[in-house]
Specification:
343 residues, alpha/beta, DNA polymerase, domain 1, TIM Barrel, 10-stranded mixed β-sheet, two-stranded parallel sheet, 12 helices, 14 strands, elongated, disordered C terminus
């Protein structure tokens, strides 16, 4: 007997195919998607406008796929890091960040990560699997604060564009009229610069993109991020310059400030040269130390100076506010802790 799949995370065409295969009325596809994405059903029994026989057939073949969080860490600043179980038996994280006029959810796309960035706690776990589209969507569907969300960022555990198919599918569900009907301008997908997925994302989706940069110089970036060998940042930026998206889509670069490594005038000039001709912005990020890594964050004076110099070069530069430092702040720390205490 085939193992039951989750129906959460299926697109409308996929649900229509399920309805056809189960010999249900064609209009049931619209009813099911409405219950999943508009009404937040957690069981087939709640889908009361479906015939009882249809609900029974669905129950025999599928799970709904809504899974509540299994743990949460709450920061004094209101940030909440939720732990969600996934079908592999592992756990992933989603971080809710409330602010004055917005509320952001940081979404995971993988269990662990294979990219090996030396500053990332998730990378220390190694790669343990891709999340399905349903497991990605569940982080939103089962979030207690779901109705308060204004922004969605694929910037949690994993490299989103190493799981392109499921990330693309989840973005479709978030933005489609049959799904959550969220404006693409509310969604940002972060990547370390995996070109095949980046090409697909620009061609087929309209959400914002954030590229992890961290150094304009090849050898330094390679030390921090092994992916530089496979997808050099110069190639990534050349592609973006040739395929610079217009409209509302925003291209930004994430730049973690490491003391004595990437925070000098040489780096300011290198960034200005590298990004010349590309409409973009830079987000400076203070580094939050993780166990076993000796890297330190640049001091506040240096971070402010770096921002000022980049702005003087004509590059719109902001500093990301540090949130949740009194809890397991780095991506991967809560799930690593959970694994340690549960075995």
């Amino acid at each position: 007997m085939t193992e039951r799949e989750d129906i959460l995370g299926k697109t409308y065409p996929e649900i229509r195919k399920i309805v056809e295969d189960l010999k249900m009325p064609r209009y049931a596809a619209t009813q099911i998607t409405e219950w999943l994405y508009k009404k937040g059903a957690s069981s087939f029994e709640q889908m009361t406008n479906l015939a009882k026989e249809s609900r029974k057939v669905l129950e025999e073949s599928y799970y709904v796929g809504r899974h509540p969080s299994s743990g949460v860490q709450v920061s004094g600043d209101g940030t909440k890091k939720y732990l969600f179980p996934v079908r592999s038996g592992k756990h992933i994280e989603a971080v809710f960040i409330p602010e004055a006029e917005r509320a952001t959810l940081c979404i995971s796309s993988q269990v662990g990560c294979k990219m090996g960035c030396i500053f990332c706690m998730t990378g220390k776990q190694g790669f343990q699997g891709n999340l399905s589209a349903g497991e990605i969507v569940n982080q939103i569907a089962s979030l207690p604060e779901r109705t308060a969300l204004t922004n969605y960022v694929y910037m949690g555990m994993g490299e989103p564009l190493a799981n392109t198919e499921n990330v693309m599918k989840s973005v479709e569900i978030l933005t489609a009229d049959y799904g959550y009907a969220i404006s693409p301008s509310r969604i940002t997908v972060s990547t370390i610069g995996m070109l095949p997925g980046l090409e697909l994302m620009i061609a087929q989706r309209k959400c914002h993109l954030a590229i992890s940069l961290h150094s304009p110089f090849e050898e330094e970036r390679l030390h921090l991020m092994p992916v530089e060998k496979l997808y050099p940042i110069k190639r990534v930026i050349e592609f973006l310059k040739k395929n610079s998206p217009g409209g509302q889509r925003r291209i930004s670069f994430e730049y973690i400030m490491f003391s004595g490594i990437n925070d000098t005038a040489r780096h300011v000039n290198g960034l200005a040269k590298l990004l010349n001709g590309l409409r973009c912005r830079i987000n400076l990020i203070r580094y939050h130390p993780i166990p076993g890594v000796e890297l330190q964050s640049s001091n506040e004076e240096t971070v402010q100076w770096f921002k000022s110099r980049l702005n003087q070069k004509g590059i719109l530069t902001t500093i990301r506010a540090s949130r949740g430092q009194d809890i397991f702040a780095a991506c991967g720390m809560l799930s690593t802790y959970h694994k340690a205490v549960t075995g």
